[in-house]
Specification:
About 35% of the residues lie in helices and about 20% in strands. The chain has helices at about 10-25, 45-50, 110-120, 145-160, 170-180, 190-200, 215-225, 255-260, 270-275, 280-290, 320-335, and strands at about 1-5, 25-30, 35-40, 60-65, 85, 90, 95-100, 125, 160-165, 180-185, 205-210, 235, 265-270, 295-300, 315, 335-340. It starts with a strand and ends with a strand. Bound molecules: phosphoenolpyruvate and manganese (II) ion.
Length: about 350
C-alpha cells in the first residue's frame, strides 16, 4: 500500500501514520519528495487495510501498489527518480556514472595503473573484484583480503569510490571497510539471504541481473534489499543467455527503457561481461548510454593480454580517456551529464 500525504501534512502526521503501520507488524518506508511525502507500507495487506488510514490527519489518499515489487516500483516514488550520491558522485536522474577498473585486483602495480588511468579519463568510480565468482573452482578466485587492502590504497590515492563484489556474507565486515558500493554479481542475484544481509548493511548496492533472470525477477531481488530500509540500489544489465553463441552474452538493451518504465532505481549497463570481446565494448557502451542508461560499468586493464581473468574483454587503460569521451557524448544525447571532477 502507498499512503500519499497531503502537501500540508505535518511531520507529526507522517509519524503518526508510520506508527500505525508499524503497530500491525508492517514496515513503513517514507519517501519525502519536494511536494509530498509518500509512505510505502509493506506487510500483510489485510492488516494494513484494516487500519483505514484514509481519513487520518494529513493523509490525502491510500493507493494499492499494483506490482509484486513494491518499493522498487515507479509508482511508489510518484515519478521521482532515485539519485544516489556516492562519495560526491551522483548517479541516476540526469546524472551519468562511469565505473571503470579491472575485472579483478591482481597486483598493486596493475590496480594502481588502472586506477590512475580511469581517474585521468574521468571515471566517477573504480571497480575491481577481490572476491571473484568463477565458473571453475580451479580458476583464480581473487586476492581476497589482500585485494581489499589494495583497493583501499587505490581509493586513498585517487579519491575514487570503490565498487567491489561481495559473494559471501562472512566477508561483509572487511568488504564494508573498503567498499563504497557492494556489487552483487549475476550468479548471486537470487541469493536472498545475501541480498537481505546487504540490505541491512545500508551500503549502496549494484545488483546485477542473473544470466537468465527476467526483469521482474531482478526487481523482486532488489526488493529484498529495499525492504531492509536500504534505498541505495542500482540495477545492472550485464547480458543474458540466449541461443546466440557468437559473443558471450546478449546485451538486453531493451531492458533499459523498460526498467525505467517499471522502477525509479538507476539502471547501469555492463558491456564488458555481455560482450566478452573488447571490440564490442565501445559500440555497446554508446548504444546503452544513448538509450538512457544511468551509468556504465566497464573493465579496464593496463595489460589485458596478461590479465588473470577476462583479458579479451578488458579495455586498454591507455585507451580509456578516448573511450570515456565517446561515452560521455552518447550520454549527453540522452540528456545526461557526467561529472568529471568531484
Ligand atoms: C564482474 O563484474 O566482475 C562479474 C563477475 O560480473 P557478473 O556477475 O555480471 O558475471
Ligand atoms: Mn570480469
Amino acid at each position: 500500500m502507498m499512503i500519499v500525504m497531503k502537501p500540508t501534512a505535518s511531520e507529526e502526521d507522517v509519524q503518526a501514520v508510520i506508527e500505525r503501520i508499524e503497530s500491525v507488524g508492517a514496515r513503513a518506508h517514507p519517501s519525502r519528495g519536494d511536494e509530498v511525502t509518500v509512505i510505502g507500507a509493506v506487510g500483510d495487506l489485510e492488516h494494513i487495510e484494516r487500519l483505514e488510514l484514509q481519513g487520518s490527519p494529513g493523509v490525502d489518499r491510500v493507493v494499492r501498489i499494483l506490482k509484486p515489487y513494491k518499493l522498487a516500483s515507479k509508482q511508489v516514488k510518484q515519478g521521482q527518480r532515485t539519485v544516489l550520491e556516492i562519495g560526491g558522485r551522483k548517479i541516476g536522474g540526469d546524472h551519468f556514472g562511469l565505473i571503470a577498473g579491472p575485472c579483478t585486483v591482481e597486483s598493486r602495480d596493475q590496480l594502481l595503473t588502472a586506477a590512475d588511468a580511469v581517474l585521468a579519463g574521468g571515471a566517477t568510480m573504480l571497480r575491481g573484484g577481490a572476491y571473484k565468482p568463477r565458473t571453475s573452482p580451479y580458476a583464480f578466485q581473487g586476492l581476497g583480503q589482500e585485494g581489499l587492502r589494495l583497493l583501499a590504497e587505490a581509493k586513498e590515492r585517487t579519491g575514487l569510490p570503490i565498487v567491489t563484489e561481495l559473494m559471501d556474507a562472512r566477508d561483509l565486515e572487511p568488504v564494508l571497510e573498503v567498499a563504497d558500493v557492494i556489487q552483487l554479481g549475476a550468479r548471486n542475484m537470487q541469493n536472498y539471504a545475501l541480498l537481505s544481509e546487504v540490505g541491512r548493511a545500508g551500503i549502496p548496492v549494484l545488483l546485477k541481473r542473473g544470466l537468465s533472470a527476467t526483469l521482474e525477477e531482478l526487481l523482486m531481488a532488489s526488493e529484498y534489499i529495499l525492504k531492509e530500509g536500504n534505498e541505495s540500489v542500482m540495477l545492472c544489465e550485464r547480458g543474458i543467455r540466449t541461443f546466440e553463441t557468437a559473443y558471450r552474452f546478449t546485451l538486453d538493451l531493451t531492458a533499459i527503457p523498460v526498467l525505467k518504465e517499471l522502477t525509479h532505481l538507476p539502471v547501469v549497463v555492463d558491456p564488458s561481461h555481455a560482450a566478452g570481446r573488447r571490440d564490442l565494448v565501445e559500440p555497446l557502451s554508446l548504444a546503452a548510454a544513448a538509450a538512457g542508461a544511468d551509468g556504465i560499468i566497464v573493465e579496464v586493464h593496463p595489460d589485458p593480454e596478461q590479465a588473470i581473468c577476462d583479458g579479451p574483454q578488458q579495455l586498454y587503460s591507455d585507451d580509456f580517456s578516448r573511450y570515456a569521451n565517446q561515452v560521455r557524448a552518447a550520454a549527453a544525447v540522452a540528456g545526461k551529464a557526467v561529472l568529471v571532477d568531484a
